[in-house]
Structure formats: structure tokens, C-alpha cells
Design goal:
The chain has six helices and ten strands. By secondary structure, the chain is an alpha/beta fold. The chain has one domain: Rossmann fold (3-Layer(aba) Sandwich).
């Protein structure tokens, strides 16, 4: 694999087919390694979805034009996956990221860290710091589970698929295992050695704040990866708890 131009890492990328086109354009520009969520538990599908897929297969068999169109789309996605360097990934205690120290200038993660326990998250924060260049930036987005006022609060044992209390076990990848707010997230990142810059969050009084960095602004170093630091077009869920964490020396 040619890694000469790679300077960015994404942790826990969702299915690329669910991402907006603006995000795909960013993550497939040749500068990223995208580590995707990996589950040994197949997703549950409704009877309606199964029947609809069966009908679609029959239509494709009867219509050559549809077969050719589907093949073209599949070829496009194959090229997209290749450009994204999409790699299966799951995190557990005692593991490490398979990269050298200081390999990246920027790390991004959206709605992944709520799916691991807090002690696992702390170990991964330390690994993110290790593989970041000094003064590199780690941008992290998670659900603001406790303080958000722009949506209902998460129930206990939240099921990310249904949006309701989960009947799944805590070992299921769809279950939210950690409930983050700006205070708990900032504390754990600071303990891991990061300087935390809140971007979007609700405070203890329920007021929502959102402020994005501008190029060459303090406390970011001049050598920062401004193209992604100042942009939000690749973020799917902008109403979330979002922070930038700068790797301190």
C-alpha cells in the first residue's frame, strides 16, 4: 500500500453507503486510512426489507439495463472503498493501533466512542495521542447523552438502531456503553494529555454552543491541517457533542 500521502485517520467509520456525498469526497481523497466498525453479529432485517430485496433481484434478472446499472454502481463503490483504504476495526482493552508513533496529523471519529466502555475509551485516547504528531488534532463527535436540550435524553441501555431502551446485551455493538457529556469527555481527554477545545456541546444549564475554528487561530499551531480542522462538511451529525483535542508535547 502506498502510504506516502496518508496523514489522516478515521476511527469507527460507519457504512460508507450511509454517508453524505460531501463526506465520501473528503474520506476518499487519498489522504486517509478509514478504520470501520466490525461486528460479528449480522444486522437484523425486517421481513419487508427481505421481501423488497427479493423483488428487486427478480426485476434485475428480467431487465438487463438494471443489471448493468447495478454493476456500475457496485464498481463505483469498490473504487470508493479502495480510495478510502477502508479497513475492518474493533477496539478492546489491551489492544493498540497498528501505526507508528506520530503517523498522523489529524484523527476523526464520529459516534463511535459511545459504543465502548470508558476504560476502553481512555486506552484508545492514549493510542490516538501516540499516533498523532505533536500538536496534531483529534476531532471527536459523540451523542451528548446527558445534557442535550435539542433532542430527548437517551434512555438507559440505549439502542442506537431503534432509538429506544435496548433489549440487547451490553456486548452488542449497537448498544451505547458510555454516556458522554462535555465535562466527562473533556476530563478524560485531559487526563490522556490533550488540550480540549469544545466545538459543539450543551452546558450544565442546557444551553447549546457551536463554534468552529478559523484558520491560523489560537491555540492551534500554524502547521495544523486547516483543510479539515476548519471544515464540517464531512460530519454527518452536527447536533452532537464535538470537540477538538490537541496533542500536547
Amino acid at each position: 500500500m502506498n502510504t506516502e500521502n496518508i496523514s489522516r485517520l478515521q476511527l469507527g467509520v460507519s457504512n460508507p453507503k450511509l454517508l453524505p456525498a460531501s463526506a465520501i469526497k473528503v474520506f476518499a481523497d487519498g489522504t486517509w486510512i478509514n478504520l470501520g466498525e466490525k461486528s460479528n453479529i449480522p444486522p437484523r432485517r425486517s421481513l419487508r426489507a427481505i421481501l423488497w430485496d427479493g423483488l428487486a433481484k427478480v426485476r434485475r434478472k428480467l431487465n438487463p439495463a438494471l443489471r448493468n446499472l447495478d454493476q456500475a454502481r457496485e464498481d463505483d463503490w469498490r473504487e470508493t472503498y479502495k480510495a478510502m483504504r477502508l479497513t475492518p476495526f474493533w477496539w478492546g482493552k489491551g489492544e493498540s493501533l497498528p501505526f507508528r508513533d506520530g503517523a498522523f496529523n489529524f484523527i476523526f471519529s464520529e459516534h463511535f466512542f459511545e459504543h465502548i466502555f470508558m476504560d476502553e475509551a481512555y486506552e484508545l485516547f492514549l493510542e490516538c495521542k501516540r499516533v498523532l504528531n505533536p500538536k496534531g488534532v483529534f476531532r471527536m463527535s459523540v451523542p451528548d447523552a446527558d445534557l442535550r436540550t435539542y433532542a430527548g435524553l437517551e434512555p438507559l441501555a440505549f439502542d442506537a438502531k431503534t432509538g429506544k431502551s435496548s433489549k440487547l446485551g451490553w456486548d452488542h455493538p449497537d448498544t451505547h456503553k458510555t454516556r458522554w457529556n462535555i465535562y466527562s469527555l473533556s476530563l478524560l481527554l485531559k487526563l490522556a494529555g490533550f488540550q480540549v477545545i469544545p466545538l459543539a456541546y450543551c452546558d450544565r444549564y442546557g444551553k447549546f454552543y457551536s463554534e468552529w475554528p478559523k484558520a491560523f487561530s489560537s491555540p492551534y499551531p500554524e502547521s495544523s491541517d486547516w483543510k479539515v480542522i476548519c471544515a464540517d462538511r464531512y460530519i454527518k451529525r452536527k447536533f452532537s457533542l464535538i470537540v477538538n483535542a490537541i496533542h500536547l508535547k
